[in-house]
Write a structure and sequence with these properties.
The protein is globular, with a radius of gyration of 21 Å. By secondary structure, the protein is α+β, with helices and mostly antiparallel strands. The protein has helices at about 5-15, 60-70, 90-95, 100-105, 105-110, 140-145, 180-190, 205-210, 225-235, 250-255, 275-285, 310-320, 345-355, and strands at about 20-25, 35, 45-50, 55, 75, 110-120, 125, 150-160, 160, 165-175, 200, 215-225, 240-245, 260-265, 290-295, 300-305, 325-330. The longest helix has 14 residues, at about 5-15. The strands form four sheets. It has an eight-stranded antiparallel sheet with strand order 13-10-12-11-15-16-14-17. The protein has a five-stranded antiparallel sheet with strand order 3-4-8-6-7. A two-stranded parallel ribbon has the order 1-2. The chain has three domains: about 5-160, Uridine Diphospho-n-acetylenolpyruvylglucosamine Reductase, domain 3, CATH 3.30.465; about 165-250, Alpha-Beta Plaits (2-Layer Sandwich); about 255-330, Alpha-Beta Plaits, CATH 3.30.70. It has 13 helices and 17 strands. Strand 15 and strand 16 (about 300-305) form a beta hairpin.
Length: about 375
């Protein structure tokens, strides 16, 4: 299916006034047989290793991108939670990211340009295929994370990074039994002479499941040349005891969520992460079907409910009261929650949607 064919499908749905859900690889959920799927829109359109940029069709899987860039010792540092069977289009549409966002940023930092079909069937291009390309309104960032509610993303251009010579992961022992212990530890880690590529806090439930211990643990991914990594490890070892863990730990963290899980993302200022973490831990301490992990540099805690139930509502209420901003990242089997793609005031979001999807046919869901 070409972009022109997708545009025709959108125009037909717009003329009929019928809802048109958007689907990628359906790794999160299946929006139904009537969905407009871009999964067949696969392939790398342009890859310029010297410029660290790559353009691919929306249905291209993350695994395909990893193979192509890995051959050049480069990588796309999004690594969203889930598996590499997911597509780049859905990753951008949902603004999904993983632990590497600690150092490299989120999709809005790494997506340079898009091709998309708006709700009235118009084909537009935003941004460009080079790093230095800024002109007009930043529609690339607007469409990124809009969950398919403004346009169908058909092509994506991303910024890549060079892989480090040495890539090592250590587990840092954490004491969070005292009220100020975690906050003090994180302050020392931030002050240490180290620049982790990823810094992820794991609750005891997920740490035990992944073989990282039976208590709260802080994973640090260190990158650079051999001398740099040794120095960073020594700096963090001066803060707390450290042990080396396998490189497969990050894939295990990303792939730990069952498809039926509900995932709620809660955020606060990074300086208040310890407080938010304590609030979430207290709310889930007696719930066997939930665990949490946090990306330290982003101030974000992800609550994963493997067995979602009414308790999720209580947790959202508690965490909001504690200063966290909740975003339902994945519904799982939970009824009664809607996706808020932008966090914009309702009237502003209504006006934005009417500009790009005047008949309101595009679904606010992506898969």
């Amino acid at each position: 299916m070409s972009t022109q064919t997708i545009a025709e499908r959108v125009r037909e749905a717009s003329a009929r006034g019928t809802r048109l859900p958007i689907a990628g690889a359906r790794t999160w959920f299946d929006p139904g047989p009537d969905a407009l799927s871009v999964a067949a829109e696969r392939g790398i359109v342009e890859y310029t290793p010297g410029d660290l940029t790559l353009t691919a069709r929306a249905g291209t899987t993350l695994a395909e991108l990893a193979r192509a860039t890995g051959a050049e010792r480069q990588w796309l540092t999004l690594d969203p939670h889930g598996t590499d069977a997911g597509t780049i289009g859905a990753t951008v549409a949902t603004a999904s990211w993983g632990p590497l966002a600690h150092a490299f940023g989120t999709p809005r930092d790494l997506v340079l340009g898009l091709e998309a079909v708006t709700g009235d069937g118009a084909i537009i291009r935003t941004g460009g295929r080079v790093v230095k390309n800024v002109a007009g309104f930043d529609l690339t960032r607007l469409f990124t994370g809009s969950w398919g509610s403004l346009a169908v993303i058909t092509e994506v251009t991303v910024r890549l990074r060079a892989r480090p010579e040495v890539d090592e992961t250590i587990a840092i022992a954490v004491r969070d039994d005292a009220p100020d212990a975690l906050g003090a530890l994180l302050a020392k880690v931030r002050a240490a002479s180290a620049a982790p590529l990823a810094l992820e806090l794991l609750s005891p439930a997920i740490a035990a499941r992944l073989g990282a211990g039976a208590s709260t643990v802080l994973l640090a991914r260190l990158g650079g040349n051999a001398e740099s990594v040794r120095a960073q490890r020594a700096a963090l070892a001066a803060v707390s005891s450290v042990t080396t863990v396998g490189d497969d730990m990050w894939r295990a963290v990303r792939g730990s969520e069952a498809a039926e899980s509900a995932v709620i993302r809660l955020s606060a200022r990074p300086s208040r992460l310890a407080e938010l973490w304590r609030t979430v831990r207290e709310a889930t301490s007696h719930w066997s079907g939930a665990y949490a992990h946090a990306t330290v540099g982003r101030g974000v805690v992800r609550l994963v409910a493997q067995d979602p139930g009414p308790g999720v509502t209580d947790i959202i209420t508690v965490t909001v009261a504690g200063g966290g901003m909740p975003i339902v990242e994945r519904l799982g089997s939970l009824p009664g929650f809607g996706v808020d793609p932008g966090g914009a005031p309702p009237e502003l979001w209504r006006r934005i949607r009417s500009a790009f999807d005047p008949h309101g046919i595009l679904s606010s869901e992506a898969a």
